[in-house]
Amino acid sequence: MKTNIELQRDVMEELVWEPSIDAASIGVSAEDGIVTLSGGVKSFPEKWAAETAAQRVSGVRAVTDQMVVTLPGDSHPSDTDIARAAANSLNWNVSVPRDRVKVLVKNGFITLDGNVDFYYQKAGAEAAVRHLTGVRDVYNQINVRPVVMAGDVKSKIEKALERAAEVDAKKIQVEAHNHRVILRGEVRTWLEREEAERAAWAAPGVSAVQNDIRIAA
Q1: What is the pLDDT of residue 10?
Q2: Distance, CA of 90 to chain centre
Q3: pLDDT per residue over 92-105, tens digit each?
Q4: C-alpha distance across the termini of the chain, in Å
Q5: Strands 62-65 vs 34-41: parallel, antiparallel or unpaired
Q6: What is the pLDDT of residue 169?
Q7: What are φ and ψ of residue 138, in 5° steps?
Q8: Which of 116, 121, 151, 195 is the most exposed place for a label (fewest CB within 10 A)?
Q9: DSSP per-residue letters across 21-33
Q10: H-helix or E-strand spanning residue 35
Q11: Angle at the Cα of 107 (from 102 to 112), degrees rounded to 5?
């Protein structure tokens, strides 16, 4: 098991390795597998990339994001400009049902609302607006409307886990309650944990996933 200092060092090296991140502006601390990222970044995509990079590091059990997006002096579009760009981006994204997602922009913070049939549509809407200039953060409040029974959801997820090369399905337990899924068990890496959650979200009718899978020491 890595010490706090070793884990902090590995995360910092991963941030430096990622070309889309200015690692010099990001602070890293680690305690018992919990990594905290702080400091300022120039865009929301950089903020998201830093969090994703930290999650990739072996030994990381969770990431706390305290980074703040500080836009460059000439990159301050109005909320109206951001809202217009977000609406256009959603209309051009084939994975997002037309006229099903609403956009609210306030001080550069985007809130997405509405109802869709699948989680990939909810994720696609967020991806469509995440990289827009001037965006400080995205709050995705889109609801996934259930379309299948809970028992079918559980069965489909278990079969998906068995097909996944990176996941040891025997160590993961799946519970489904009214289209809300709970994952339990223990895996070897964060990547395996994320892959299990991705498989759960891919099942039709899933409106929420509670990932209680632990990372083995």
Answers
A1: 94
A2: 18
A3: 988 898 889 999 99
A4: 6
A5: parallel
A6: 81
A7: -130, 125
A8: 151
A9: --GGGEEEEEETT
A10: strand 34-41
A11: 20
Per-residue pLDDT tens digits for 8-53:
999 999 999 998 899 999 999 999 989 999 998 888 889 989 999 9
**What predicted TM-score, i.e. pTM, was given to this entire model?**
0.57
Query: Environment class of residue 2 by beta-carbon count within 10 Å: exposed (0-12), middle (13-18) or buried (19+)?
Result: middle
Q: Which CATH number fits domain 4-69: 1.10.8.100, 3.20.20.140, 3.30.1340.30, 3.40.50.1100?
A: 3.30.1340.30
Residue 102: exposed, middle, or buried by beta-carbon count in 10 A (0-12, 13-18, 19+)? middle
Q: Which amino acid is at 217?
A: A
CB-neighbour burial class of residue 132 (10 A; exposed 0-12, middle 13-18, buried 19+) = buried
Euclidean distance between CA atoms 5 and 59, whole angstroms = 12
